[in-house]
Design brief:
Blueprint lengths: L22 H7 L7 H19 L4 E2 H9 L6 H16 L1 E5 L8 H9 L10 E6 L19 H20 L3 E3 H10 L2 H4 L5 H10 L3 E6 L11 E6 L1 H6 L1 H12 L6 H11 L6 H16 L1
Antiparallel strand pairs: 1-3, 2-3, 4-6, 5-6
Helix pairs in contact: 2-3, 2-4, 6-11, 11-13
C-alpha cells in the first residue's frame, strides 16, 4: 500500500469504458471454471491492487485490472474477478461494488447523449470496495481512521466529506455554491480544516468522486456572463456513504431522537417514504451495543 495518498486522476476518462460481454468474455465462458494455482495467484494480485486503489480512493477500473494485474491473461477477467470477489468476502470482509455511471446533468450533456450513436453502457466498469461486516462491527471504536497521514487528519477529512454530502442530499440532491459556502462559514470550516484550505479540500473531494461541481449558464465562460454553480453527490459518495449514511449522521447529530415529527421532516428532506434497511440495521446495532455496555 502507498505510504501517502496521491492525487487522483479525473474520473471523466471512465466515459470511454464500455461494460458489456466482449469477445474476451465470450472466449472465457467457453473455458474451464476450475481455479488453478495461476488463477489463485492472479486473484491475490487483484486483491492487492484493489486494496491499494481503495486506500488512495481511486476507482478500481476494469481496464486497469486487465492492464496491471492480468496482462496477457486478459481473457480470464471474469473468472479471476469472481475468485477475488469470493476471497474478499471470506477473508477481508469486503466486496467489489460497481460504482454508478456518471449522470448527464447539463442540457448540453443530455443533448450530446441523445445524438450519440454509441451502444448503451450496461455498467460503469469501475468498482470500489464495500464492507460486508454486520453493522455491529462497523463501530468507530472498532474501525478506526487510518494512521496515514494521521488519525486526526483522516478522521477530520472523513467527517467533512460526509457532512458536505449529507448537506447536498438534504437539499434535494443539489446545492448551490453560495448556499454551500454559507453552510461552511457557519460551521467554521476554515478553522476546523486547519491543515488545508476549504477550496482545496473540495477539489480533492471532487477528484475522488465524493462530489460533482457543475457550472453552467446562458453565457458560461464568457466575460460578464451569468454562471450558476451547483454541487451534486458524486458516484463514490453514493456507494460509500449512501442514504443510510446520511440518515445515520443526522440521527447522531440530533441525539437519536424518538420523535415521529423529526422522522417525518427528515424523510421529507431526503425525499423518501421509508428508512433504508442499512440505517435501520445500524440503529438497532447501536442500541444493542449501548445496552451491552
Amino acid at each position: 500500500m502507498p505510504r501517502q495518498r496521491r492525487v487522483v486522476e479525473d474520473e471523466d476518462e471512465e466515459e470511454t469504458t464500455q461494460v458489456q460481454i466482449s469477445d474476451d468474455d465470450r472466449a472465457e465462458e467457453s473455458g474451464s471454471d476450475a481455479a488453478g494455482p495461476s488463477d489463485q495467484q492472479l486473484a491475490k494480485k487483484l486483491i492487492r491492487y484493489a486494496l491499494a486503489c481503495e486506500y488512495s480512493r481511486v476507482p478500481i477500473r476494469r481496464e486497469g485490472i486487465k492492464e496491471r494485474v492480468l496482462g496477457k491473461n486478459g481473457r480470464s477477467f471474469r473468472r479471476i474477478f469472481k475468485l477475488a470477489q469470493r476471497q474478499m468476502r471470506d477473508v477481508w470482509g469486503m466486496e467489489f461494488r460497481e460504482l454508478p455511471m456518471k449522470e448527464k446533468m447539463t442540457l448540453h450533456e443530455k443533448r450530446q447523449a441523445m445524438k450519440s450513436n454509441s451502444q448503451p453502457r450496461t455498467g460503469s466498469g469501475a468498482f470500489a470496495l464495500s464492507s460486508t461486516l454486520p453493522a455491529a462491527y462497523r463501530s468507530p471504536a472498532i474501525i478506526t481512521p487510518s494512521r496515514v497521514p494521521s488519525v486526526e487528519e483522516e478522521a477530520t477529512y472523513t467527517a467533512f466529506y460526509t457532512m458536505v454530502v449529507s448537506l447536498i442530499m438534504l437539499n434535494g440532491g443539489e446545492l448551490s455554491d453560495q448556499k454551500l459556502q454559507r453552510y461552511l462559514l457557519r460551521l467554521n470550516a476554515d478553522r476546523n480544516l486547519a491543515s488545508e484550505k476549504t477550496d482545496l479540500v473540495l477539489k480533492r473531494m471532487e477528484k475522488q468522486g465524493y462530489v460533482v461541481k457543475q457550472t453552467e449558464g446562458l453565457a458560461a465562460g464568457q466575460d460578464g456572463g451569468d454562471q450558476a454553480t451547483t454541487w451534486h453527490v458524486g458516484r463514490r459518495a453514493k456507494e460509500e456513504i449512501g442514504l443510510d449514511g446520511v440518515v445515520g449522521l443526522v440521527r447522531e447529530v440530533y441525539g437519536h431522537p424518538e420523535n415521529e415529527d423529526f422522522d417525518k421532516k427528515l424523510k421529507s428532506s431526503l425525499g423518501i417514504k421509508d428508512w433504508p434497511s442499512a440505517a435501520v440495521e445500524e440503529e438497532n446495532a447501536g442500541s444493542a451495543m449501548e445496552e451491552d455496555g
